[in-house]
Automatic annotation (TrEMBL):
GO terms for molecular function: FAD binding; UDP-N-acetylmuramate dehydrogenase activity. This is UDP-N-acetylenolpyruvoylglucosamine reductase. Keywords: Cell cycle, Cell division, Cell shape, Cell wall biogenesis/degradation, Cytoplasm, FAD, Flavoprotein, NADP, Oxidoreductase, Peptidoglycan synthesis. It is an enzyme of class 1 (oxidoreductase). PANTHER family: UDP-N-ACETYLENOLPYRUVOYLGLUCOSAMINE REDUCTASE (PTHR21071:SF4).
Length: 312
């Protein structure tokens, strides 16, 4: 661990040993099952610990990366240096009248199910989004005509200095698959949603329909990062890829899905390099055939592999 030994010891003073992992493979924490090692992988159990980890990283000038549940993310084969922070242990969901308060690490699907259980309408669109609450705010996640900005009224975050702030939804500049969260360096601790009372059977019927549509059209049998590209104005990304005869095209173990052209799947132990190469192949081909630039919806982070991976 080299220079990180002292940082490791200081992290143990913030949280317990089971919440600090050394040289942890990030492919164990991403939907694509891709990614090299994190020097230090930390999973705080409360808001104070999150703040203290951020402050420690600042004091010690240690590189710091926030990782959600890795559903809309590709981590490169060289992994990530410094501290990688995961909020997967922060997953409480509570209901207060027509409002739901959900911690950052909770699955947004579980929040939609909690809304159903209390006959609250507004989050039906999220019943098939495979991400955390924090990730959903980060990119203003949406599906089937709904998006986070439709129902979010407030959020609690930690800023770059480790200070806790309560912000209105308007202060996040939520737009199509974007927010100012990455620009501001915020770490979402919790989201507060304003919903409406509805009829349980009607809400369930909508969620069942959306779930069926998702399961019948998306290649859920293979690891992937979900929809790879944003919808280009006037087009559908999947249709452009399909019309470019790219379905089934593969590099190594990564393949353009034959079930849904907008997905790239890890079909056979792909590396992140192979997966990213398929993304770039799709972008080049669609640009050549249709003069349309496909912009990635998925985020790519980490370092390239400089030498063959060595399994400890």
């Amino acid at each position: 661990m080299g220079n990180y030994h002292q940082i490791y010891q200081k992290l143990l003073a913030i949280t317990s040993e089971e919440n600090v992992m050394v040289n942890e493979y990030l492919k164990n924490h991403t939907y694509t099952q891709l990614g090299g090692k994190a020097d230090l992988f930390v999973t705080p159990t409360n808001y104070d610990e999150v703040q203290e980890v951020v402050k420690l990283a600042n004091r010690e000038d240690v590189a710091f990366t926030l990782l959600g549940n890795g559903s809309n993310l590709i981590v490169k084969d060289g992994g990530i240096r410094g501290i990688v922070l995961s909020l997967k242990r922060l997953k409480d969901i509570t209901t207060e009248d027509e409002r739901i308060i959900a911690q950052s690490g909770a699955a947004i699907i579980d929040v939609s199910r909690s809304a159903l259980a209390d006959a609250l309408t507004g989050l039906e669109f999220a019943c098939g989004i495979p991400g955390t609450v924090g990730g959903a705010l980060f990119m203003n996640a949406g599906a089937y005509g709904g998006e986070i900005k439709d129902v979010l009224y407030e959020t609690v975050v930690v800023d770059r200095n480790g200070e806790q702030l309560t912000l209105s939804a308007d202060e996040l500049d939520l737009d199509y698959r974007t927010s100012n969260i990455p620009e501001k360096g915020y770490i979402v601790l919790e989201a507060r949603f304003q919903l409406k009372n509805g009829e349980y059977d009607e809400i369930k019927a909508v969620m069942d329909d959306l779930t069926h549509r998702r399961e019948s059209k998306q290649p859920l049998e293979y690891p992937s990062c979900g929809s790879v590209f944003k919808r280009p104005p006037g087009y559908f990304a999947g249709k452009l890829i399909q019309d470019s005869d790219l379905q089934g095209k593969s590099i190594g173990g990564a393949e353009v899905s034959t079930k849904h052209a907008g997905f790239i799947v890890n079909k056979n132990n792909a590396t992140a390099t192979e997966y990213i190469s398929v993304i770039e192949l799709v972008q080049r081909t669609v640009k050549e055939k249709f003069a349309v630039s496909l912009e990635r919806e998925v985020k790519i982070i980490g370092e390239d592999m400089e030498e063959p991976a060595k399994v400890d």
